[in-house]
Design a protein that fits this description.
Length: 122
């Protein structure tokens, strides 16, 4: 499944209606913008999230995310320089949707490719 260029309005969740699954791989590229992931608009305030790391992206560098979801494990690789993994606990059988959100300012999804992964135990 491929999603083409899509506007992401600030602070609004955009559901990707044709992308879903609990074992999927996503490859997304975002155009550079001033969007951030901070909860404050003050320039000197930085997020302090446990087990978080910062990735600095140059103004003209796109943000490229590789996302791997394998049921209760989510791994994200950003620009080939930063990787993070987290265990998730979806409480519903239909918790398989994918959505995007630009925090703070509008930005643009340049493209997103999604592949469903097969279950090796079947």
């Amino acid at each position: 499944m491929r999603v083409g260029q899509t506007a992401l309005p600030a602070n609004e969740e955009i559901m990707l209606l044709n992308v879903s699954g609990n074992a999927i791989e996503l490859s997304a590229e975002f155009h550079p913008s001033a969007a951030s992931s901070y909860s404050s608009t003050l320039p000197y305030v930085r997020a302090h999230i446990p087990a978080a790391a910062s990735l600095f992206v140059a103004e003209d560098e796109p943000l490229k995310l590789g996302v791997f979801v394998d049921r209760s494990v989510v791994e994200v690789v950003a620009n080939g320089r930063l990787a993070a993994a987290v265990r998730v606990y979806p409480g519903r059988q239909d918790s398989i949707g994918v959505s995007l959100r630009s925090q703070g300012r509008d930005t643009v999804l340049a493209s997103l490719d999604a592949w469903r992964m097969a279950n090796i135990y079947r």
